[in-house]
Automatic annotation (TrEMBL):
GO terms for cellular component: cytosol. It is an enzyme of class 6 (ligase). Catalyzes the attachment of tyrosine to tRNA(Tyr) in a two-step reaction: tyrosine is first activated by ATP to form Tyr-AMP and then transferred to the acceptor end of tRNA(Tyr). It comes from the Bacteria. This is Tyrosine--tRNA ligase. L-tyrosine binds at residues 40, 177, 181. Keywords: Aminoacyl-tRNA synthetase, ATP-binding, Cytoplasm, Ligase, Nucleotide-binding, Protein biosynthesis, RNA-binding. Belongs to the class-I aminoacyl-tRNA synthetase family. TyrS type 1 subfamily. PANTHER family: TYROSINE--TRNA LIGASE, MITOCHONDRIAL, TYROSYL-TRNA SYNTHETASE. GO terms for molecular function: ATP binding; protein homodimerization activity; RNA binding; tyrosine-tRNA ligase activity. Pfam families: tRNA-synt_1b (PF00579).
């Protein structure tokens, strides 16, 4: 990166590793110096919670606000009805309006932890693109907006090309998505003075479309900035764990499991993740990331505590660390472990340990749980579990601790 920005926001983006590309470095830098830059990132409402894969661009919005600019979190109440085809192998299942509304409600809880919403000049605002997409007249939209799009150019975008090269179907519905996203940027500029769209580098084509459309329709200059698509140093997609997506809502993933995800970061990723996911000074991130041997584990605990504090609060982070120490250093049970409480009715005449492993989230299926036991990867109260046991209500009167490998644990107990 040879460009040396003057604005604080661009300096942070470059220093901390957030920046992959920008449509106009100098123009955006000048705009950031000149005044408050309203900036949006769009989120389609495909689940009840955001996950760790979204956290990079949530942190970008947080830094944007900390450096004196205005974040716009755009909920895709309209575009979720279509589905973003970018780099997807298959068409996304279509969701009902009720499910979309529920998902938006769940996602809003996460944003409130990272951004300050309100009516002030740099307070964040939350919008829903259904506001302008739901009422569109199809023929007018084709005439006024569709005429600005070249199908030849749309077919050249990597996100579309990769799907067609694999001879996988791309529906006309999905093909429309990039036009709708471009229209979002035009409307946000027209209605709210939005000057910048940010997103992952897979969104580059969609962002450029919005900039071109806005220039053609209302002759305004706006900007795009992308972040790198993160993978861990061992090649895994960021935000995936053995148990699936790492959710940001506590009811979908306990703060302890969230903390544990960060504590299990690969050594080579610690310094980079500290810069991206915490607000520690860059020099401290570099110092911690350079630690070697057993000392790198101290840096991982700092990472886990900092990220968990932002997402779930300082108390949750402290409780998670205390539980981890108790579980790993003393072999204890730990009060903050994910807990499965079963009623006597659910237990009935007896429930197998295979069912308990699945119900507690340590395995996705009975087959996976049985394989875990057969391969000596399962433990019961820290002792190897070598056979399929059956538990009745009396056996669960005192909590039992189940473990899958060395790092994933859960408590099972009889409900009060």
């Amino acid at each position: 990166m040879t460009y040396h920005p003057k604005s604080e926001f661009m300096q942070v983006m470059i220093e901390r590793g957030f920046l992959a590309d920008c449509t106009d470095y100098q123009g955006l830098d000048d705009a950031l110096i000149a005044g408050v830059v309203p900036t949006y990132i769009g989120y389609d409402a495909t689940a009840k919670s955001l996950h760790v894969g979204h956290l990079l661009n949530i942190m970008m919005l947080r830094w944007l606000q900390k450096t004196g600019h205005k974040p716009i979190t755009l909920m895709g109440g309209g575009t979720t009805k279509v589905g973003d085809p970018s780099f997807k192998a298959d068409e996304r299942p279509l969701l009902s309006q009720d499910v979309i509304d529920q998902n938006i409600s769940g996602m809003q809880q996460v944003f409130a932890k990272y951004l300050k919403y309100g009516d002030g000049p740099t307070d964040a605002i939350m919008l829903n693109n259904a506001e302008w997409l739901d009422g569109l007249n199809y023929l007018e939209f084709l005439r006024d907006i569709g005429r600005h799009f070249s199908v030849n150019r749309m077919l050249s975008f990597e996100s579309v090309k990769s799907r067609l090269d694999r001879e996988q179907s791309l529906s006309f519905l999905e093909f429309n998505y990039m036009i709708l996203q471009a229209y979002d940027f035009l409307e946000l500029n027209r209605r709210y003075g939005c000057l910048l769209q940010m997103g992952g580098s897979d969104q580059w084509g969609n962002i450029v479309n919005g900039i071109d459309l806005t220039r053609r329709v209302i002759d305004n200059q706006i900007f795009g900035l992308t972040s790198p698509l993160l993978a861990t140093s061992d090649g895994k997609k960021m935000g995936k764990s053995e148990g699936g997506a790492v959710w940001l809502n506590a009811e979908m993933l306990s703060p302890y499991e969230f903390w544990q995800f960060w504590r299990n970061t690969t050594d080579a990723d610690v310094g980079r993740f500290l810069k991206l996911y915490t607000e520690l000074p860059v020099e401290e991130c570099d110092r911690l990331g350079a630690l070697a041997g057993s000392e790198i584990n101290d840096a991982k605990i700092v990472l886990a505590n900092e990220v968990t504090t932002l997402c779930h609060g300082a108390e949750a982070a402290a409780a998670a660390e205390a539980t981890a120490r108790e579980v790993f250093e003393k072999g204890g049970v730990g009060a903050d472990l994910p807990t499965l409480s079963l009623s006597k009715e659910e237990i009935g005449d007896g429930i197998s340990v295979v069912q308990l492993i699945v119900k507690s989230g340590l395995a996705k299926s009975g087959k996976e749980a049985k394989r875990l036991i057969a391969e000596n990867g399962a433990k019961l109260d820290d002792q190897p579990l070598t056979e399929v046991k059956i538990f009745d209500a009396a056996a669960l009167a005192s909590p039992i601790k189940l473990s899958a490998g060395k790092k994933r644990h859960a408590l099972v107990q009889l409900a009060d």
